[in-house]
Specification:
By secondary structure, the chain is mostly helical. The chain contains 14 helices and two strands. It is a multi-pass membrane protein.
Length: 367
């Protein structure tokens, strides 16, 4: 058993390493050709950078993930007889998820293409939201939807929750992409935590995909850490949010009698920080009488910088909050109701402390 676990872990790390190398290489190519083609994110408006920065990092992330997952699928199909027993016995199961995975990646690609167009021509928010809702609805209609507990076992209600969740996360990561390294590092931590939570209940398909995402984001961060030499743009942030939203929906939360049903709360813990950032920004904009889709510098990262942190310190702070709030997801599958309440309360309390400190500092500045 330990030997099989080691082989599965090595296979997962291989996927992550391959995605890392490809993403780092594609990122270098994106920097070179985006500069030549004038595909740049130029300063101005609510943007904080001082000089034009190449776009195209989202394409590098997308292409790396597709190539690695595609190569893994071909290996499972064509070279099954040459694989170690620990992998070969799961090859049929992996191939059985092909249709579902193709639907997810295909619709995520549509979202990426929409973001790529938006990077060039600034699509209206109604068009962006409409395409996001359409893609999420198609995914839910195809069978990829939440089936938690009554009444969410009903297809229509489960489908509505699925659409709301995926569209919400897509926009959350788009909003989170406002500072060097932020969206990629939060996405990396979230993918790693959720992949770990899924592996803990014996699931293999979501962890394999999520480890590929981890590797691709790590490779992109080679170019995106402060000071960034490459941005993922709306193409990358929309793709990342949609893909993570879909993967948290298809995840297996309990697979045996010994696993707790409260594992269904794992996505909420892992994604707590992006959801907090999005909710707080929307409330601020509505309170000020502005559109929730109007860009500004009122995000959590910007508010931390306004409190005296440097931009890298703000990113590290949000990364640590994401990690601290999401670690409980690794334990939920073993907890009873009281244990699950404690873990959820811990994450809520952590975000509450952040909110109180923000509010207290704001009042001090007013005085």
């Amino acid at each position: 058993m330990a030997h099989d676990t080691a082989i599965l872990a090595a296979a997962g790390l291989t996927l992550a390493a391959a995605a890392f190398l490809l993403s780092a290489i594609f990122g270098l190519l994106a920097r070179r050709y985006a500069l030549r083609l004038g595909f740049l994110d130029r300063p101005g408006g609510h943007k904080g950078h001082k000089a034009p920065v190449p776009l195209g990092g989202g394409v590098a992330i997308w292409l790396s993930i597709l190539l690695v997952i595609g190569a893994g699928g071909l290996c499972a199909f064509l070279a099954r007889d040459f694989l170690p027993d620990a992998l070969a016995r799961h090859a049929s199961g992996a191939l059985g998820t092909t249709g579902e995975l193709l639907r997810i990646l295909g619709l995520a690609t549509v979202i990426m293409a929409m973001g790529l167009i938006d990077d060039r021509v600034n699509l209206k928010w109604q068009i962006r939201l409409g395409i996001q809702v359409l893609c999420a609805t198609l995914l839910a209609a195809s069978g990829v939807r939440v089936t938690l507990f009554w009444p969410f076992t009903h297809p229509l209600l489960g489908g509505a929750v699925t659409v709301l969740w995926i569209v919400g996360l897509t926009n959350s990561f788009n909003m989170l992409d406002n500072m060097d390294g932020l969206a990629a590092s939060v996405g990396l931590i979230a993918a790693l935590l959720f992949g770990g939570a899924q592996a803990a209940v014996g699931s293999l398909f979501p962890p394999a995909v999520l480890l590929t995402v981890v590797g691709a984001l790590a490779g992109f961060l080679v170019h995106n850490h402060a000071p960034a030499r490459l941005y993922m743009g709306d193409a990358g942030s929309n793709f990342l949010g949609f893909l993570l939203g879909a993967m948290t929906v298809v995840g297996t939360y309990h697979v045996s009698a010994v696993d707790s049903p409260y594992g269904v709360l794992a996505p909420l813990l892992v994604m707590a920080v992006p959801l907090y950032d999005t909710t707080s920004v929307i409330l601020i904009r509505l309170r000020e009488g502005r559109s929730p889709f109007e860009g500004d510098q009122r995000h959590l990262s910007h508010r931390l910088v306004a409190r005296g942190l440097t931009r890298p310190q703000a990113v590290w702070t949000i990364d640590l909050i994401t990690l601290a709030g999401g670690l409980g997801a690794l334990l939920l599958h073993r907890l009873d109701a009281r244990g699950a309440v404690v873990v959820v309360a811990q994450t809520v309390s952590l975000l509450g402390v952040v909110a109180i400190l923000e509010l207290a500092q704001g009042r001090a500045e007013e005085r």
